[in-house]
Amino acid sequence: MMARTQAAHLRPSSRYTSPVEPGRVWLRICMGVVLALLFLVPYIVMLLGSFKSLAEISRTPPTFIPQQWHLDNYITMWSVSETPLPDNLLSTIVIASLATLLTLAVSLPAAFYTAKYRFPGRMAFLFLVLMTQMLQPAVLVTGLFREAFALGLNGTWAAMILINAAFNMSFGTWILHSFFASIPTEVDEAARIDGANTWQVLTRINLPLIWPGIVTAVIFTFVAAWNEFAASVVILSSAPTRQPLSVALFSFVGQYQTKWQYVFGVSIVAIVPVLILFAIIQNKLVAGLTAGSIK
Amino acid sequence: MSALPMLPAADPRRGSSHRLRDLGRATPWILPGLVLIIAVVLFPAGLMIYTSTRRISQSGVDRGGVGLANYATIFGLSDLPGVLLRTLIWVVVVVAGTVVVSLVLAHFLNKAFPGRTIVRIILIIPWAASVLMTTLVIYYMFEPNYGLVNNLLMRIHAWLANSPLHLDWLVTFANGDYGFTKRMPAAFILAIFVAIFVSLPFTTYTLLAGYQSVPKDVIEAACVDGATSWRTYRYVTLPMLRPALMAATIINIINVFNSYPILKVLTGSMPGFGADTTTTMMFKLLQTNQRADLAATLSVVNFGIVIVVIAAYMWLVKPLKGVDE
Questions:
Q1: Is A96 in CB contact (< 8 Å) with chain B?
Q2: Which among A25, A139, A179 has a CA at the least distance from the CA of B253?
Q3: Do B314 and A293 touch (CB under 8 A)?
């Protein structure tokens, strides 16, 4: 894979500029290794720490590599007294999945229609979507808390699903809008002449063409909802079994003693699936976040 | 619906009945989104402003209107000037640090070398991981008793103290007796580094996307004309990166201003508001002090600040420009 990457990247650049000297390539590789290590170190400490015993992880002086490997941390952490971890994992999965589905269900039609049709208030709607994209739950959390209190939704999955969906639908709409807009009108018109209605133009013609946009929107929304903290910590503070992993993690942090091995074990469990999803869309990672601002 | 022409021109001469019909056709497509935004963004914003004029009991019961008394309370807090100053330092230092380091990273990661894709993927990790988890592990690394980095610094400290130049004050200043995690300003400085660390992936990737709009032949032309690599970068590459740089900067300003987990972990256990920004202070008012009314009041102030930043974004970056009118 490395060789292929090298070939793919070296060829175009050497066509335009002078060929890169071998010494310079080695310098870049060394810098790349240093950079990778700098970004990896905290997560290596996390991974190694998740295999240590409580005694070893809070020992002075500290160890780097575990002296005894406690692989059973990954089993015992599911039945600790601090927090109902299986419930927390379930909550994280339910909230992130349903919020992603709702986001898609709401943003797909809005993105399609605003990209293909003109109607009064279209720019106003897009402006509103853009405003929402710049807002975050943290700045509105008191209002959300009071609203959920009035509706009796504090401590429920429904509240967090709606909040995650609302704050991510703007991003979903925005990126899907740009994908829909990139499909030539002629394609839609040809389908229409063949007798397709608006719904069929969307499902039969457009959706197969924009699926990379859908994948990106889905993964971004899922990761954002998976890691959401500011609203969850307030809305779900009274419901320990409904808390996602990010909030439940705090149960291990005590005033006098912290069960770091579980903090790190839970973190690894939470990070690995998300990292895989992000790596899949590595090349498209920014396309939507800044859609419209970078041409 | 099937007879609807694609992309009907926005003709101002079209009658109001046509406009009404266009709106009617659009409704089923955009209404769900509109309802969600109104119910979960606009309504809570309004409710927040309303709550800021009420007295709310600790159990959440509305005890009636108090006018602007909550604002008087918030602006009368002796901690507030310090909180505002820290917020300013927090946002400016973190965003500036993030942008400068990201420019260097993007410049490097735009060059060809074997393994570049792997380095780019590793760079994603702090972005994919929840900020809270990254902060917790860095907190652990700097923990005064068993933190690995803290232990390393203490060894360097001992070595420096024994060295003829007596440079141990360098580490004492940063490290102190209690490490980085239990006191100001060391904990706040560490929080700034963590905030930069977790902001680097998004910013670097945005700039890398910006690099795709820098044509190679322009760089080539500058080189042929004899420009040094620094001059090429300063006068050719950087101006072309400007849109990406602007977008990344403003999104970072909003993210860093709204950031909560980093300071919650690193300075949250300190009593009072002596280590807070306006965002973390708001969370303390809401959760520790159980004062939803005061939290709402401070939130309104924060909301105002965010709106100003968004307005600057709309004005400077013009993100709606790409949409056909």
A1: no
A2: A139
A3: no
